[in-house]
Amino acid sequence: MSVTDPTAWATAMNNLGMVPVGLPGQQLVSGFDPGLNMMTGITPINPMIPGLGLVPPPPPTEVAVVKEIIHCKSCTLFPQNPNLPPPSTRERPPGCKTVFVGGLPENATEEIIQEVFEQCGDITAIRKSKKNFCHIRFAEEFMVDKAIYLSGYRMRLGSSTDKKDSGRLHVDFAQARDDFYEWECKQRMRAREERHRRKLEEDRLRPPSPPAIMHYSEHEAALLADKLKDDSKFSEAITVLLSWIERGEVNRRSANQFYSMVQSANSHVRRLMNEKATHEQEMEEAKENFKNALTGILTQFEQIVAVFNASTRQKAWDHFSKAQRKNIDIWRKHSEELRNAQSEQLMGIRREEEMEMSDDEISEVDRSRDTKESLAAQAYALKEENDSLRWQLDAYRNEVELLKQEKEQLFRTEETVTKDQQLQFLQQTMQGMQQQLLTIQEELNNKKSELEQAKEEQSHTQALLKVLQEQEINVLTVALVNQDRENNIEKRSQGLKSEKEALLIGIISTFLHVHPFGANIEYLWSYMQQLDSKISANEIEMLLMRLPRMFKQEFTGVGATLEKRWKLCAFEGIKTT
């Protein structure tokens, strides 16, 4: 391999798990001679283990890592014998950035050590001992894993053969106080970040505090009365009203104002009932749409199952291969299961409706039910309005009595004149309300009479529906009986269609008579193929099923040895007769 070829140099560096010089990224080897030579004929394996850093190395595999010769400027590293076991290492301390390097040559200097190990990453400190070992501290934890890879290499300084210029390297994890302190600092920082993240998450998920309730005053009460009449602000206003009543803000002076606010809250009952009726109507429409969609799905399932049944008939079945038949059979069973499930769901919906009826009858019953509910709702609304007017009349009477008492106590001044005018106005409004109350009572009586008429019409339609159901059931039973009779006549009229079938029946009867314990369809088919190679097992089985008085099918064995066998039963019928 030419050392001047940049492509060959990049390939060699990638085989060692290194980034080539001049490319961005973390370099495993930065001080190697560009003129290094690689061993040819051996497929290189990337020595870099996955998940560098705090992740432990994966368990050893049966495939041995092939190490290669590494050339440096001042020394050469030779890999150990691949047949020898890999060098052992101690348990990795947390946050380890320091490695122990033993087996150094006696003449190795700190500059040579730095030249060899700076290819693994940035070195922050080297502590060399006089006893041929040293400690090297790297800048990052993943660099330690790259240094461990050099364990087991034999280091030779230059081209000397002296024992003082060679040694077998042993690289292992070292436990240093600085590494452990930095690791603890990182753990504490991560714990602080986790606590901060949890606090932010709790603050985000904490429900908001309820809004502050203002204190009662006549001005705030007037504003609240306007809010109670607004549908969009009703929920907020009713909360404030409830808080005021629970605080005890109701007294003789403010009773009428609170009564008017309670009356405004009561006026929303009719709106809520109308919304409820609207939602119920939407729910009924959704149920009807769901039932119609389910019926359409069931119809399509029926068509799919019909296609599969037509494919399994002999006319088309013989043209499919075994794999295609198996797939068609699996699809057919799956479609039948889905069809049955959809059918059961639809029948459950129909059972909930208590009876089956046509679309016209359903519409009539729905219309009668809707008219009944609307009349009941109108009657309830009129009753509520009647009660509210009666309560308002009582309130006005109380106000009149209070005004009379104040009139007796005070002198005849301008205030008394205005009170007299108010009294006259209240009397006029009272008279108008009495007249309105009478008209409402008349409307209520009319609605009650209409409700009774609707109930009578509903009972009449229900009786008519019952009669129609009985007629439909009778027609269905007669049709089913006629169909069963036609099927029985068709079954009796079936017989042997050709001389070939008669010959086959004779041969099969002789074969099964010789085998008194019966024979399965494959055994019978293999025997018949010797006589007629074009005959199929399905054709033989269909012929046997057409003659139940001559042939019968029995199951023998238990569990995995379960087998279907055909037996000749024609002589049994003769014996019994």
UniProtKB/TrEMBL annotation:
Gene3D superfamilies assigned to the protein according to its UniProt record, in alphabetical order: 3.30.70.330
GO biological process, one term: ultradian rhythm
UniProt-annotated location(s): Cell membrane; Secreted, Extracellular space
Chief subcellular location: membrane
Cofactor: Cu cation
GO CC terms: external side of plasma membrane; extracellular region
Family: Belongs to the ENOX family.
Full protein name: Ecto-NOX disulfide-thiol exchanger 1 isoform X3
